[in-house]
Design brief:
Blueprint: H1 2-13, H2 20-51, E1 77-81, H3 85-101, E2 107-111, H4 114-123, E3 132-136, H5 142-152, E4 154-160, H6 166-174, E5 179-184, H7 188-196, H8 198-205, E6 209-212, H9 215-223, E7 231-233, H10 245-260, E8 266-273, H11 278-291, E9 295-301, H12 307-316, E10 321-323, E11 336-338, H13 345-349, E12 354-357, H14 370-374, E13 379-381, H15 389-398, E14 401-403, H16 407-419, H17 421-437, H18 441-452
Parallel strand pairs: 1-2, 1-4, 2-3, 4-5, 5-6, 6-7, 8-9, 8-12, 9-11, 10-11, 12-13, 13-14
Length: 456
């Protein structure tokens, strides 16, 4: 209770340009939010336990969700939050750039999901515990956030892309910790959701600085009450992707093994698939095998708790399945390769001749199509890409991405690419060009962050 009362006291007493009337509105808005969140808090923990049935990692390090972290970095560092795998991949180049530009400032990186945590640990394996710390992000409750902030004492809070938690934002503001939403994106659907709680979202908008990917994202933030002086359009840092030489080498070696040893002549990949898409992908692969018996489907489910379900479905449909976790060597008779480990997707894009990016034949909003484009391969996506509207439009206009409306069109598109190697070459050229044309967002974002750091 003391932490909650402290929040209201600092709202009233903090020295900002807010009028007394607006401060009163903020008190009411945050009071309502805290009451609602307090009622729902047991459900958050129940959901963790439920998800841990198939993914035991959700049960581990539960104390970090309460703000009780083991690390104690020096005061005045950077707190950066990346929800899950996609945000982590976008954040790592920023983390490395911050480390290079501000080598004495500790960086605490938080994630929400176990997959995000594992991906971060893998990508920063050599840097963690060397003035870069990691934990799960605490739930957005005054006690938990207050404990966490008092432990790590950051000088700035950077949140990647979409996570807006009211108590975290306002406690940071009241402790004079600038809040930056970096590489920010917002879909029309999300904007409508925030509009439904305008009494709360408008209060949040007064306390954040936002670097959006595109102008449309900026317009949505402005419509929610974000002052234009707190906004900058920097572009998507995902276009600044760099494929490490060792990653390219590993992909080439694996593909050589599939071609020479497993005798695979055509390799296509279904990435980040959700429930309801795997059946479509397998039906397409069955038709491909009739045209080319040596074709291989690589399937990468979006969530680790679905690995076994997808494996069972694949075998029930009569395919010869190889699970990557069992062995990296694929036998010639296997026609489906299931990637049942996290953090491998970027590598397998480099192995495929064609990629389909999931979360798009079902209404989940799509996933990152820039990664496969960076490898110079033709990319397919379903129509549900509302989380990446601007990126999708740019890739489609450049000829690097093809939108298919249903499972039948998926089959037609993959079969066409199977039969026409010229289309593969044209798609590759378009992919490389669109990546080169959209680079530069990382530098703009770093300049935006530098302008808000209390210590230059």
């Amino acid at each position: 209770m003391r932490h909650t009362l402290d929040l209201f006291i600092v709202i009233v007493n903090n020295k900002t340009s807010l009028s007394l009337a607006n401060k009163a509105k903020s008190v009411v808005a945050y009071s309502l939010y805290i009451v609602l969140f307090s009622c729902l808090l047991p459900l958050f923990f129940a959901r963790l336990l439920y998800r841990s049935i198939k993914a035991p990692a959700y049960r581990s390090r539960m104390s970090e969700r309460l703000g009780l972290v083991a690390a104690k970095p020096a005061a005045g560092g950077i707190w950066l939050h990346a929800v899950s795998v996609g945000e982590v991949i976008a954040a790592v180049p920023i983390i490395k750039a911050l480390r290079q530009q501000y080598p004495l400032m500790p960086i605490t990186v938080t994630t929400t999901t176990p997959t995000g945590s594992a991906r971060l640990t893998e990508m920063l394996a050599e840097d963690l515990d060397n003035n870069i710390f990691h934990s799960y992000s605490p739930y957005d409750w005054p006690i938990f956030i207050s404990i966490f902030l008092r432990k790590i004492k950051p000088s700035i809070y950077i949140v990647m892309e979409t996570e807006l938690w009211p108590v975290t934002i306002y406690l940071c503001q009241c402790m004079n910790i600038p809040v930056i939403v970096a590489n920010a994106r917002m879909s029309a659907k999300s904007a409508k959701g925030y509009q439904r709680v305008a009494w709360l979202s408008h209060a949040m908008m007064q306390n954040i600085q936002v670097a959006t990917q595109y102008q449309q994202d900026a317009e949505y933030y402005l419509s929610l009450g974000l002052p234009s002086t707190q906004l900058q359009v920097t572009g998507s840092i995902k276009f600044d992707i760099e494929l490490a030489p060792e990653l390219v080498l590993a992909a080439n070696e694996f593909k050589t093994q599939l071609i020479n040893d497993a005798k695979k002549s055509f390799i296509w990949l279904a990435a980040s698939t959700h429930k309801g898409e795997d059946e479509f992908v397998l039906a397409t692969h069955r038709k491909i095998l009739k045209q080319d018996p040596n074709a291989l489907l690589i399937i990468v489910p979006r969530h680790l708790e679905r690995f076994d379900d997808v494996a069972d479905l694949t075998e029930e449909k009569g395919f010869q399945l190889h699970r990557h976790s069992s062995s990296h060597a694929v036998d010639a008779e296997k026609n489906v390769l299931l990637i049942d480990s996290i953090g491998q997707l970027l590598l397998f894009y480099g192995i495929a001749d064609v990629a389909f990016v999931g979360g798009s034949l079902v209404p989940r909003g799509g996933h990152n199509t820039i990664e496969p484009v960076a490898w110079g391969i033709p990319v397919l996506s379903g129509p549900h890409t509302f989380n990446f509207t601007e990126v999708t439009e740019r890739l489609v206009q450049a000829g690097a991405l093809q939108i298919i409306d249903n499972d039948q069109q998926l089959t037609v598109a993959v079969l066409k690419l199977l039969k026409d190697s010229k289309q593969l070459t044209l798609g590759a050229a378009a992919a490389r060009q669109v990546i080169d044309d959209n680079r530069g967002a990382k530098q703009k974002l770093m300049e935006f962050i530098a302008s808000l750091l209390p210590i230059k």
